[in-house]
Amino acid sequence: MKKQYLIIFFSLMAIGLIAGIYQYVQVFQAEIVGAYTSSKPANGHSWSEMECTSGLCITADNKVGIGTDAPAQKLSVAGMIETTSGGIKFPDGTIQTTKELAGPTGATGATGATGPQGPQGIPGVSASLSCVTVSNTCTGLTCTATCTCASGYTLTGGGCGGNCSYGNWGTASDGYFSCSHGCTAGYTVNCTARCCKLL
Fold first, then answer.
1. In a domain, 120, yes or no
2. pLDDT tens digits, residue range 162-188?
3. What residues make up the domain containing 172?
4. Domain-embedded: residue 173
5. Which pLDDT score is estimated for 101?
6. How many CA atoms lie within 13 A of 172 on its CB side?
7. 41-76 pLDDT per residue, tens
8. What DSSP character marks residue 94?
9. How far is CA 126 from the centre of its chain?
10. DSSP E strands: which ranges in 67-142?
11. Residue 140's domain is classified under what CATH number?
């Protein structure tokens, strides 16, 4: 009789243990399904190709997406990017810290067409011209007459003359006339010089 009681007792314990294990499995399965549903990859992706945590996704080929589950580049951001210090470094080693990026100065362009003539200027002050005539005479054998303008004056005209029928009648140069002749004694040669300056 005692043996039968023991068999019944252990049978009830086994049934209770099985029922408890079954209930525990049901609760555990529900928790797993809930966790999977809340964090599973988006449509078109699988656990083997992507891992996402709080908006940050990393694909199997090491592409990172922030705010997107389909990064097309090494880093894809769906939203505004902010850098508070340091700037952005480019592949050539340059660092940009402001929005302005100035390149090297280009070559000088071709000269443009001449513009229209400007308006006529204000008339200048009228200038007065002061002129004097300088003269000189030389008499004798082979002599020279020279007429030189004073300092500040400019030679504007003049010439040579005399009563010798032949000889060197001179030239104007450096502000004076020099006139000479090769006649015999008693003949003369003379010069005149017109000298002017602005007042």
1. no
2. 877 655 566 666 778 888 877 777 788
3. 129-198
4. yes
5. 63
6. 14
7. 555 555 455 666 667 888 888 888 888 888 889 888
8. -
9. 48
10. 75-77, 88-89, 95-96, 129-139
11. 2.60.40
With respect to residue 96, please indicate whether it lies within any of the assigned structural domains: no
Q: What is the pLDDT of residues 109-140, one digit of tens each?
A: 999 999 898 888 888 777 788 999 999 988 87
Question: How far is CA 32 from its chain centroid?
Answer: 63
Q: Which residues contact 98 (CB under 8 A, 6 or more apart)?
A: 87
DSSP one-letter string for 138-191: EESSS-EEEEEPPTT-EEEEEEEEES-SSS---EEETTEEEEE----TT-EEEE
User: What's the total number of domains in the chain?
Assistant: 2
Which residue's structure tokens are 């002749």? 181
28 inside domain: no
Verify that 76 and 134 share a domain, yes or no: no
Q: 158: left (phi > 0), else alpha (psi -120 to 50), else beta?
A: left
Which residue do the tokens 């067409």 mark?
113
Q: What is the pLDDT of residues 11-41, one digit of tens each?
A: 656 665 566 565 655 554 555 444 444 455 5
Torsion 83-87-90-96 (CA) sign: positive
Provide the whole-model pTM.
0.35
